[in-house]
Structures are given as C-alpha cells and as structure tokens.
Amino acid sequence: MDHLCKLIDLKLEQNHNILVHCKHGKHRSSCLVIAYLLYKTRMKLDNIYEIMGTKYPLVKFKRHLFGDALKMYENELGI
C-alpha cells in the first residue's frame, strides 16, 4: 500500500489528476483512498471510516473485506 500511496502523492505533487476506481467503486477503490488518507493525514482509521461514511454515503465500504489490511497498514504507519 505504501508504494501506491507514494505514487499518488508524487502524481499530485506534479499536478496530475488521480482517478481511483474499481468495477463497482465501493470496496477496492475506497480501500485505496482510505489507505492514502491514513498515509497522508495520519488520522486514526476509525476517524477516516466516519468521514468516508458521512461525506461519501454512496461508498458502502465493508470492513470485513479489507479492514484487516487497513488496520495492519495503520499499525505499520505507527498511528
């Protein structure tokens, strides 16, 4: 995940637009966006889940699919 987050950061610094998508735009793409928010803001995962749920209600992220991986990434980042 770290590699993808660094790539997104690099492209944003170069003023490129970033489109993160998957087939339905609910699980895999939101997982990467959440991982990037962890990486960039160092916010707690639960706070990011709350923001995603209130700001983007169409995203129905299912924690049981990628929650463990995101929790591991949060721990790797030392948050």
Helix content: 55-70%
If you average the pLDDT, what whole number results?
A: 89
* Percent of sequence in beta strands: under 5%
**Order of secondary-structure elements:** HHHH
What would the principal axes of the Cα set say about the shape?
Answer: globular
Question: What oligomeric state best describes the polypeptide chains here?
Answer: single chain
From the helix content, strand content and strand pairing, which structural class follows?
mainly alpha
Whole-angstrom Rg = 12 Å
Q: How many helices?
A: 4
Compute the number of strand runs: 0
Poorly predicted runs are none
Describe the structure.
Helix content is 65%, strand content 0%. The protein has helices at residues 2-13, 28-41, 45-55, 63-76.
How would you summarize the topology of this molecule?
Blueprint: H1 2-13, H2 28-41, H3 45-55, H4 63-76
Notable characteristics:
79 residues, globular, 4 helices, mainly alpha
